[in-house]
TrEMBL record:
Any GO MF annotation of the entry: oxidoreductase activity
Keyword Endoplasmic reticulum appears in the UniProt entry: no
Lineage: superkingdom: Bacteria
Keyword Oxidoreductase annotated: yes
Organism: Cohnella cellulosilytica
Family indicated by similarity: Belongs to the short-chain dehydrogenases/reductases (SDR) family.
InterPro entries: NAD(P)-bd_dom_sf, SDR, SDR_fam
EC number annotated for this UniProt entry: 1.1.1.-
One Pfam family here: adh_short_C2
Name of the molecule in the record: SDR family NAD(P)-dependent oxidoreductase
Length: 253
């Protein structure tokens, strides 16, 4: 048994980011054609495109502002013209900002998180779900965070955006499930990425001690969960919030 995404087309938003590039690479390794979304890193997107095509799949780069509905709609048309209709949406992009206390956090930071977590998901659904309904197959995967369950000091804007996103995904799962479309979330913990490998910051003993598996996860482990949810192996999983963090947070029943 293996994950086979042959003949599927995936979109990964924020595909040039630390986690996004590994998700895009993994989906391509599973046989999916990939639309590589970027906002400002065109050079990295082109390099990733070259890497993915070496796996024998098709890959295109697409530029869009995922907080703008018209830009997302334009991206959808471009992908369909240059590649194929999208079967798998991975909503990974998020606006970066400086974390601080609620009393000091700028109001616009809350707005940026709402736009890039909640409204990105809404715009992607409006653009890509109708086609999935027509084909009676689709996968919608959002990248959430363990922070949504931790609610630690300085996380307020990020947590607010991601908890709002969680609500959108749960409702969407109920609205479109009858069409054979699954809607799920992967919630990474503090994940080791290329940035850590380059700076040799993979280890953090204080964090690791809070994790039942006593280590940080890797970008590949996050991508593995995404690929699984995108596949037919996960055909009866929908509406799930799945922490991939070694048990650092555990949703209750």
């Amino acid at each position: 048994m293996k994950i086979d995404l042959g003949k599927r087309t995936a979109l990964v938003t924020g595909a040039t980011g630390q986690l996004g590039r590994v998700m895009a690479r993994t989906l391509a390794q599973c046989g999916a054609n990939v639309a590589i979304h970027y906002r400002s890193s065109e050079e990295q997107a082109l390099a990733l495109q070259e890497e993915l095509t070496a796996y024998g799949v098709k890959a295109v780069i697409v530029h869009a502002d995922i907080t703008d509905q018209q830009s997302v709609a334009d991206m959808k048309r471009e992908i369909e013209a240059r590649l194929a209709p999208v079967d798998i949406v991975v909503a990974n992009a998020v606006v970066q900002y400086q974390w601080t206390s609620i009393l000091e956090q700028a109001p616009e930071d809350y707005a940026s998180q709402f736009d890039s977590c909640v409204m990105q998901s809404v715009y992607l659904a409006k653009a890509f779900v109708p086609g999935m309904i027509e084909r009676k197959w689709g996968r919608f995967v959002g990248i959430n965070t363990e922070c949504a369950m931790q609610n630690f000091p300085s996380q307020s804007a990020y947590v607010a955006g991601k908890r709002g996103m969680d609500g959108i995904y749960r409702v969407l799962a109920k609205e479109i499930g009858e069409h054979g479309i699954t809607v799920n979330q992967v919630a990474p913990g503090w994940t080791i990425s290329d940035r850590d490998r380059e700076s040799h910051t993979e280890r953090n003993e204080a964090y690791e001690q809070s994790v039942p598996l006593k280590r940080r996860g890797t970008d590949q482990e996050i991508a593995n969960a995404v690929a699984f949810l995108a596949s037919d192996l996960a055909s009866f999983i929908t509406g799930a919030y799945i922490p991939v963090n070694g048990g650092n947070v555990m949703p209750a029943i």
